[in-house]
Write the structure tokens for this entry.
Amino acid sequence: MKLLGIYWLLQALVVSALHANVPELRGHGHTQTVPSKPFPGNVNANTISKHDNLDGPQLSAVNESSYEWWYFDAVSTDRLSSLTIVFFTALASGFAFVDLTPDVTVVGIDFLFPNGTTNSIMLKADEAIITTVGQGASAVFENSGAKWTGTFDLSSYAVEINAPESGIVGTFDLKSLAPAHYACGKAHAGQRMMVAPNIGWSNAIPDAAGEVDFEVNGEKFQFNGSAYHDHNWGAQPFQDAIIFEHWGRGRLGNYSIVWFTVSSAPDGRGYRAIYVAAHGHVLTASCSNKSFSLAPLYTNRTASSEGTLDGYALEVNLDSGDVLSIRVHIQQVAVDAAPLYVRRIGSMVGRLNGGEIIRDGVALFEEFDLSDLQ
């Protein structure tokens, strides 16, 4: 018990240190109400960061073409279970992967159970009331039973779902272990918020200690593990913005890693972003083409077949000049909507500058392939 107490004390000190540079903007904040029906006019999207509002709404309103969502996930330490909760303010015309419904305000929940089975639940809300204080945000999706609460300094978030009529009741708590960031740099004012044309991205919690405690259709669904929270938005349909997108995140030893690659539909160019932090310090947060490489790994490859996708190899160039080499191996499929979309969880191994191997990492990663829709 003493060792456990020391561990949590060290975790608390890390969290305190990594949020020490976030402005203490408490106050009463700003509240935006998003009706369930789309706005009939044009929408503007924020593209340059301010000194606050990293996780608040970034659209002036939500119409039939725009999209915005707040994404939360967790993966168990044994890599057998995962949870994803996404609070959407979007129609299918703005983001094609939500249900066909006239309601803008919906919540999507995906479960991967230890036995390999999956379940998905969609909740509809009458409106979303989103309050921003400092860098953090909180929201209530009215009459859906779903809400989240975030602190002003992004140190912790809590998601609560109380929808027994839909078969789900429980909580998901996140305690941040890594500083927030944007695609091209730290969480400072004046940063570019677009990871690619018409794809806004802020990452409030790149890595967290997660605690999941739910009851799903009468069955307990509980685990501790690595957790994550980010936020995307755009004023034009998401499906018009990309040809292909690969995003992933994970924890390997003391390293928290997030990566993002996009083949953009509007200009045909490739975009990327990489983030690595350790012990509460950002080691790199870059969108440079030279910041990292990402290559698929295959098994059973032959001259006539590329074989079976096994995972990915990442080579990350840290700001210090060190190189972090990582291999991500697929272990479970959490959501399978192939060929358009797949979400997977897996393991990570790696080493710094070719040194000692770091094992037993955990990762969650996804791919959108919309090439056939362009």
Observations:
- The longest strand covers residues 199-216.
- The chain is about 5% helix and 55% strand.
- Confidence is low (pLDDT under 50) at residues 1-26.
